[in-house]
Amino acid sequence: MDLTELFEVKFFLLVLFSVVLPPAIYGLLLVKKAISRPTVLFLGVLLIVLAGVDIALINILSVSAKHTLSILDDKFFASQLKVALYLLPALFAGIGINVVSHILISHLVGAEKKFAQEHPHA
Q1: CA distances from 42 to 7, 39, 52, 72, 102 (A)
Q2: Run means of pLDDT, 10 residues per run, the chain, 122 residues
C-alpha cells in the first residue's frame, strides 16, 4: 500500500467520523420519542470521542499531505483551510458536552429533590 492509498483510507475515515456518524447520532437523539439516560449519556460521550478522533485524523492527514505529490490535499490539509476542518469536530464535541451536562444536571436536580424529601429540616 503506497502513501496515496493510505491517505485515501484516512480521508474516508475522516468523512465517516465527521460527516456521517455524528449527524446520525444527533438525528437519533432528536427522532427517538423515549430514550434512557444511560443511552443519552453514551451517545453524548460518543460524540465527544468522535470529535477527538476527527482532530487526530485531521492532524495525521495534514502531516501525510506534506508527503504526497497531490497539490489538492496540500490546499486542504497543509494550509490555513485546515482550520476550517476543525469546525465540525468542535460543533459535535460541543453538542456532546451539552448532552452529557444535561444528563448530569438532571441527575443532580433529582438527587437534590430526593435529599430535600428525606431531610426536610436540613
Answers
A1: 30, 5, 15, 37, 13
A2: 65 88 90 92 95 90 73 65 82 94 96 92 76
Write the CB contacts of 61 (distance below 8 Å, at least 6 apart in sequence).
Answer: 7, 10, 11, 14, 73, 77
List the domain range (segments joined by +) for residue 61: 3-118
Q: Which residue blocks in 32-80 are alpha helix, DSSP H?
A: 37-65, 71-77
The distance from CA 34 to its chain's CA centroid, rounded to whole angstroms, is: 23
Number of structural domains in the chain:
1
For residue 89, give the C-alpha cell.
469536530
Handedness of CA 29, 32, 33, 37 (dihedral sign): negative
Q: Which three cell numbers stand for residue 11?
A: 480521508
Query: Is pTM beyond 0.85 here?
Result: no
